Amino acid sequence: MQHIDPFDVSDESINYQKLIEEFGTQPISSVKKLPNYKAFRRGFVFSHRDFDKFLTAVEKGKKASIITGVNASGSLHLGHKWTMDLVVALQREYDIPVLLTISDDEAYVTGKVKSQIESLENAKLIAAQLLALGFNPKKTRILIHQQYTKIYNLAIKLSTHCTMNEIKAIYGFDMSKNPGQWFYPVVQAADILLPQELDGPHQVLVPIAIDQDPHLRLARDIADRVGLVKPATVHMRFLRGLKGGSKMSKSKPGSAIFLDEDPKRAAKLCMQALTGGQPTIEEQRKYGGDPEKSVVIEYLGAHFIEDDSELQKLKDDYRAGKILDGETKQLLASHVEKYLSEFQPKVSKYLEEIEDHLMKD
Description:
With 361 residues, this protein is an alpha/beta fold. It has helices at residues 16-23, 38-41, 51-59, 78-94, 104-109, 116-132, 150-159, 164-171, 179-199, 213-225, 263-270, 281-287, 295-304, 308-319, 325-352; strands at 4-5, 8-9, 26-27, 45-49, 64-71, 98-103, 140-144, 203-209, 232-236.
């Protein structure tokens, strides 16, 4: 039985249609005019809440912004990049401001790091990585909770507009959770509603993976009670781990390619990725492979092949047995090594000046 919440995702295959029904969201197909970006064309985005309202506001030139974030348990990986690439694309398409929040506090209270010092160091690395992914520094605000403690003042303010019973119902917490974990959902709501707190009520989009939707449900309920616009969201599918499973994750050893990984070692990891091929070369040539089972082809389509016809040809050739698993792995390895070799120097440059890019009290 699949289990999904902000702190844990079971490892079996995910039934996304069932999630739409369980979470009470809308299929992305219900939005008539989607942006011409691969995440929408290729089905990476599968669900939404009020995305149509956000697009209408943007098209009419009304105030709009985007907010998303990550926790500070360690370096970003390709799974995070998948979502952030979408945010970068939307920022470029609509020329709107973006707020990126890094929850170093969540990493600490949930035991993902040993100290607040460690989470702060991780957060600064992540901030530099985010900028290196292509966000417009002039239109992007980044905050780390330890350094922008005004977020807690907003959380205190919002906390009077929800109840412990509500948090228990949304998150399923019991009394074994520490007080920091019980309060953290309100801090997340503060993150999500901060753009409206700073700039007045307006349409805000929150692109996330579906496991983070409970944060959106709480934030939307609170927004309605305090006179703010309910934030919209689009839900990304999970990028599967290297060897399969439901998602790439920091907490699942061997499942992720991290953006601070040595490029050559990352290339070697690609050679271990799950494929959809046959047991032998002869059988692969005869029967072909299943591109939908191949993590290798999934990564290529998510990150490195921009042209839809090129990706479709790769899939067709794979099905026909014209391409072997070793060839697809080598293609992915070369892309990953090249990308990381070019990306990491950009991160180093931003790290040198990172304090200039962070919101402070």
